[in-house]
Automatic annotation (TrEMBL), chain A:
Protein name: Exosome component 5
Residue stretches making up the Exoribonuclease phosphorolytic domain: 55-109, 113-177
Lineage: Eukaryota, Metazoa, Chordata, Craniata, Vertebrata
Compositional bias segments (type: Basic and acidic residues): 1-15
Organism: Microcebus murinus (Gray mouse lemur)
Taxonomy, superkingdom: Eukaryota
UniProtKB/TrEMBL annotation, chain B:
Family membership noted in the UniProt record: Belongs to the RNase PH family.
Cellular-component GO terms for this entry: cytoplasmic exosome (RNase complex); nuclear exosome (RNase complex); nucleolus
CDD domains according to UniProt: RNase_PH_RRP43
Subcellular location: Cytoplasm; Nucleus, Nucleolus
Primary localization class, coarse: cytoplasm
Organism encoding this protein: Microcebus murinus (Gray mouse lemur)
GO-annotated biological processes: exonucleolytic trimming to generate mature 3'-end of 5.8S rRNA from tricistronic rRNA transcript (SSU-rRNA, 5.8S rRNA, LSU-rRNA); nuclear mRNA surveillance; nuclear polyadenylation-dependent rRNA catabolic process; rRNA catabolic process; TRAMP-dependent tRNA surveillance pathway; U1 snRNA 3'-end processing; U4 snRNA 3'-end processing; U5 snRNA 3'-end processing
Record has Cell membrane as a keyword: no
MF-aspect GO terms: mRNA 3'-UTR AU-rich region binding
Keywords recorded for this protein, A-Z: Acetylation, Cytoplasm, Exosome, Nucleus, RNA-binding, rRNA processing
Protein name in the entry: Exosome complex component RRP43
Residue runs in coiled coils: none
Domain called Exoribonuclease phosphorolytic: residue spans: 31-166, 193-256
């Protein structure tokens, strides 16, 4: 699979997209995405969201394996390389979003898109979506979910800290609402990219 | 003839059983395998436990040593878990550095210890800033037949309940630690986290306590670690097919009943042990 090289640096900058100011119901931080910024790999994307290794790799790999239609590419190895440029909290969710966008950019057939959302519960039970590094450290519990785009089902979850069953359902519902914003952003950024070329 | 069909079409063979709401080994979808636990069998360790979940066998040994407490938390000790999946437990593991599954299991057990606060790390401190206990918990799988995380969590809990630490006093004149081996105290175990694992089949069916073959055929796994108050220490779902909120609720209720079963079993065993 080869993707055409962009020799015009101006057009490369325009393939990026930035999300608008936060809507009233959504409390995710500002995010931006740029695609096809590396010429060598088949597909690439950088995802910037807001300003214990093998375990995280396994989580991301299993999430990708669940959505990628591997049967269409037998005897093929798909390598996803994630490089952390800066960590301002919600790292795993950001990695999942970057992995999904990179797979889309590479043209890998998938049965659904997926996105990562992080929730933090602080000491008095208040829910904070997309916490900063400071909020994560001070939280009683931090829950990270990966949700698919078709039915908002839970693909992956990893949690830290102690929380009750009711709080889990509350976080899951909030994450499902927030994932709609992320999927809408995916759609807009892809539309913007393909409408230029 | 059934053996031939099983080799050629393992998934279809399995589906025939699932249609009748049972599994090849005769269990129902929500039934666990026979669980047995043997506490305190290793005399050279400070605490030990052997757990068998059907054929899956995990042994946990806890050794306590002295160490200097960390500089950013001078009143805390350490609990260091390590899960080892040697080639003797299954043909899918090779000898050499720990594979991915062993590392993920070790990280999982470390998270459970951290999240559930099973031991208050301050209890392990002997002299703030100078001396603290470090508990090395080694979990070794002797036979791998699926559901390793449940067995490891149970073995760790049982072994920690069995640990006896000798009393240590710091001699003011020599500033050396004096260990009194005659006087030993049990650890203060604050919560009892119990893990319940599920395997997801064909995106819809959830079965409890998967065997090795079932794990191989499953499209996803889910592990819930719950303590006695119904609080969740860990919801570990490493990818795999999606689950709706309603299915998660069913899993929670099963995890609550499993916690009661495991706690009852462990209390019976500890009560039946003769005091040393």
């Amino acid at each position: 699979m080869e993707v055409g090289m962009h020799t015009d640096s101006k057009s490369r900058a325009e393939t990026g997209a930035e999300s608008g100011p936060r809507g009233p119901g959504c409390s995710l931080r500002h995010f931006a995405c740029e695609q096809n910024l590396l010429s060598r790999p088949d597909g690439s994307a950088s995802f910037m969201q807001g300003v214990a290794e093998k375990s995280r790799e396994q989580l991301i790999r299993n999430t990708c394996e669940a959505v990628v239609l591997g049967a269409l590419h037998p005897r093929t190895s798909i390598t996803v390389v994630l490089q952390v440029i800066s960590d301002a909290g919600s790292l795993l969710a950001c990695c999942l979003n970057a992995a999904c966008m990179a797979l889309v950019d590479a043209g890998v057939p998938m049965r659904a898109l997926f996105c990562g959302v992080t929730c933090a519960l602080d000491a008095d039970g208040t829910l904070v979506l997309d916490p900063t590094a400071k909020q994560e450290k001070e939280a009683r519990a931090v829950l990270t979910f990966a949700l698919d785009s078709v039915e908002r089902k839970l693909l992956m979850s990893t949690t830290k800290g102690l929380y009750s069953d009711a709080e889990l359902q509350q976080c899951l519902a909030a994450a499902q609402t927030a994932s709609q914003h992320v999927f809408r952003f995916y759609r807009e950024s892809l539309q913007r990219r393909y409408s230029k070329s | 003839m059934a053996a031939g069909f099983k080799t050629v079409e393992p998934l279809e063979y399995y589906r025939r059983f699932l249609k009748e709401n049972c599994r090849p080994d005769g269990r129902e979808l929500g039934e666990f395998r026979t669980t047995t636990v043997n506490i305190g069998s290793i005399s050279t360790a400070d605490g030990s436990a052997l757990v068998k979940l059907g054929n899956t066998t995990v042994i946990c040994g806890v050794k306590a040593e002295f160490a200097a407490p960390p500089t950013d938390a001078p009143d805390k000790g350490y609990v260091v878990p390590n899960v080892d999946l040697p080639p003797l437990c299954s043909s899918k593991f090779r000898s050499g550095p720990p594979g991915e599954e062993a590392q993920v299991a070790s990280q999982f057990i470390a998270d459970v210890i951290e999240n559930s606060q099973i031991i208050q790390k301050e209890d392990l401190c002997i002299s703030p800033g100078k001396l603290a206990w470090v508990l090395y918990c080694d979990l070794i799988c002797l036979d791998y037949d699926g559901n390793i995380l449940d067995a490891c969590t149970f073995a760790l809990l049982a072994a920690l309940k069995n640990v006896q630490l000798p009393e240590v006093t710091i001699n003011e004149e020599t500033a050396l630690a004096e260990v009194n081996l005659k006087k030993k105290n049990y650890l203060n175990i604050r919560t009892h986290p119990v893990a319940t694992s599920f395997a997801v089949f064909d995106d819809t069916l959830l079965i409890v306590d998967p065997t090795g073959e079932e794990e191989h055929l499953a499209t996803g796994t889910l592990t819930i670690v719950m303590d006695e108050e119904g609080k969740l220490c860990c919801l570990h779902k490493p990818g795999g097919s999606g689950l709706t909120g309603a299915k998660l609720q069913d899993c929670m209720s099963r995890a609550v009943t499993r916690h009661k079963e495991v706690k009852k079993l462990m209390d019976e065993v500890i009560k039946s042990m003769k005091p040393k």
